[in-house]
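Hey,
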Amino acid sequence: MSRTFVVLCAVIASAALVACTSSSKPKQTPLGSTSAPSTLTTPATTPTPSPTKTVPLSPFEDDPAVKALRTWADQAAKAFNAGSKFHDPALTALETKSFVPLTANIFRSDKGLRYPGPPPFTPISVKSPASAERDVRACFVAYGFAVDPRTGKAPKKLQLVPQLAQMVNQDGVWQVNHLLSARDFSCASVKVAMPKW
């Protein structure tokens, strides 16, 4: 290996070292340029995103009638917590005219308590008797979810009841038409998620 070659390599290596360490500022890319500064990082500093997967409350959550029933439950609990204001337009818009006066009866047994979230339920089937109708069979938490506002605890034992929610589509809006006790299915082995606000 010649002396000239070794000296040349040393000069190139020194120039590369000076070029790498001479400036801590990244090189600016002029506007309109097609080249951009590198945004690559070393594998050791690259963050690994944590996958977040939300598990649906039931296989029927994408059904528009089930979505409307969940919205109704949310609004009804808020109306109850606000002093049983069941004629709130946000709630009555989700109910047929015949169902509006029945809502107060559904919440009557929880008088004096407070809802920490919408009344929980798990749909177990959805049927369409007609294009603008849905029969949602669901297991509702009838007791044991509402809490005593002084203690924050539910004074009643948790109890699931089978319910048939008859939903109708009026002018493009799904509404609760009836919420009836059902005897054609059991909630004995059903698990109900109880999300809170």
